[in-house]
Amino acid sequence: MTSLLLDIYERLYRRFGPCRWWPADTPFEVCVGAILTQNTNWANVEKALANLKQEDLLTPEGIRALPQDRLSELIRPAGFLNVKTKRLKCFVDWLWERYAGRLDLMSAEPLASTRDELLAVHGIGRETCDSILLYAGNYPTFVVDAYTGRLFTRLGIIGEGSGYEEIRTLFMSRLESDPALYNEYHALIVMQCKEYCRKRPFCSACVLQEICNFPGN
Ligand code: SF4
């Protein structure tokens, strides 16, 4: 299994890499982007991030001090205003109370306990949590999303309907514990699923075609 996962990685890397994720100027911007991207596309998130940057508020201090209604106005392009405003505020409150607003202090703590703590913060689901830990905290944790499920089900590596933790454990138990590898692998999966392994897959041009189990590829 390890060699198959690495083979897939190599094929995708030759096609798309390096992807240089996550697109952000600071680790805190990664966190805000990971929360805002829930249920919306990245172009809308970029507009919301640009609004915060323009006002010089894309910092833990900035968001902490911002009244909720003003924060909602600034993140309007990302949608779900009440939900996302509350989630951002809860995340920043947690970061402040626990780590004095410093992601570098968070990142010095062990992965398992930090992940448990972050998952307990209002509105932080598993994908958002692992995105923050990997891309902002440089922790060796694998991010699983719907693309990961689709691609690896079609490849015949996981079963239909496999759960988040099951898929994450598969990658983390078979691959070296390496944030750089996990960072690039997740980005490559997203690229592959946007370009080839779409809902209606474009198998004839796919670099994984010869090792894929998907019927009719
Ligand atoms: S061959 Fe088709 S189904 Fe298989 S990974 Fe490629 S695009 Fe997806």
Cα gyration radius (Å): 18 Å
| Overall domain count | 2
Ligand identities: iron/sulfur cluster
Largest sheet: none
The gross shape turns out to be globular
Per CATH, the superfamily of the largest domain is Hypothetical protein, domain 2
CATH level 1 class label of the largest domain: Mainly Alpha
Query: What number is the mean pLDDT?
Result: 96
Beta-strand content:
under 5%
Task: Please give the share of residues in helix.
Answer: 55-70%
The H-and-E topology, N to C, reads as HHHHHHHHHHHH
The CATH architecture of the largest domain can be named as Orthogonal Bundle
Q: What is the CATH topology descriptor of the largest domain?
A: Endonuclease III, domain 1
Termini gap: 22 Å
Q: Helix/strand/pairing class, anyone?
A: mainly alpha
Low-confidence stretches: none
* Tally of helical segments: 12
Count of DSSP strands: 0
Describe this protein's structure.
This protein has 217 residues and is mainly alpha-helical. Helix content is 60%, strand content 0%. It is built from 12 helices and no strands. The radius of gyration is 18 Å and the shape is globular. The two termini are 22 Å apart. It binds iron/sulfur cluster. The site of iron/sulfur cluster has 14 residues, from helix 10.
Describe the secondary-structure layout.
Layout: H1 2-16, H2 27-36, H3 42-54, H4 60-65, H5 68-74, H6 81-99, H7 103-106, H8 111-119, H9 126-136, H10 146-154, H11 164-174, H12 179-195
The protein binds iron/sulfur cluster.
